[in-house]
Amino acid sequence: MANTAHAHRIHPLEGRIAGSAGVRITPAAPAARVSLRAGPSDVKALSKALGLDLPLAPKTTSGALPGRLAAWLGPDEWLIIDEGGDPLADLGKAKVLHSAVDVSHRNTAILLSGAGARATLEAGCPQNLTDAVFPVGAASRTVLGKIEVVIIRTGDEDYRVECWRSFSTYAFELLSVGARDCLA
Amino acid sequence: MLLIHCPYCQEERPELEFRNMGEAHIERPKNIADISDEAFEAFFFIRSNPKGVTHERWRHVHGCARFFNAVRDTVSDRFVATYKSGEPRLEVERGEDGELLVKGARS
Ligand SMILES: [Zn+2]
């Protein structure tokens, strides 16, 4: 009789929690993610397939989590995040030229919330994150310490940091250290 | 930190998001298999490396990931202007005050 092995997938930041008086740092729930590349003439059809308008302005998003969110990463590049549905399957219904790559298991995310969330991010991110240029709904690929991340501002005091799975412990530690000084 | 204007993101972003990609406006010969070794050397290896105004390719690698062109002064390290890939070479001139400006921008 054949033996059956059961693999149990463990979240890379399983069980972690960090923060300080001003900020709470937690791992985000699992989500499906798609790296989408397409030319301007095909955006309309892809938006229809996804059920949201792909953002066309730099540093903007459309949609919201939980549910589906699309972040502008470049003039022909988006990151789609979905906590319930299957964006890849939906994109498959669009019969226009595009590249959609499932990066669900490449990425994970860290959530920051609280009055010190922005200051915590600023400990490792050189980008200007002030309200005037990084309002709620803004998203940007940038750097955090020595890794590349995508930062999404989901609320007044809430940020989502998308990073590669293998870098997530580094990102989590860096943000934890940043949290200590966030209200100083 | 140096701030660089990305023509695709349409704003200034920290230099840590960018990478220099060498001299701009170097066109690959269309008959590359037919050219002489000397001509290939000139195309492939020889760069102008001027003191002063230089045209460079840059990449917003940790941002929108796009390549673009920049005019930079190698003496002051100032960026005069940046523009999208495919756009014509931007000509600049030095004013009486020594500052570099895009040609025609001064009025
Ligand atoms: Zn850019």
Automatic annotation (TrEMBL), chain A:
UniProt cross-references to Pfam families, sorted A to Z: SoxG
Signal sequence extent: none
Top-rank taxon, per record: Bacteria
Record-given protein name: Sarcosine oxidase subunit gamma
Classification of source organism: Bacteria, Pseudomonadati, Pseudomonadota, Alphaproteobacteria, Hyphomicrobiales
UniProtKB/TrEMBL annotation, chain B:
Gene3D superfamilies: Folate-binding superfamily (3.30.2270.10)
UniProt feature coiled coil, ranges: none
GO BP terms in the entry: tetrahydrofolate metabolic process
The protein's name in its UniProt record: Sarcosine oxidase subunit delta
Transmembrane feature ranges: none
GO molecular function: sarcosine oxidase activity
Pfam entry (one): SoxD
Organism (species): Hoeflea olei
InterPro entries: SoxD, SoxD_sf
Highest taxon, organism lineage: Bacteria
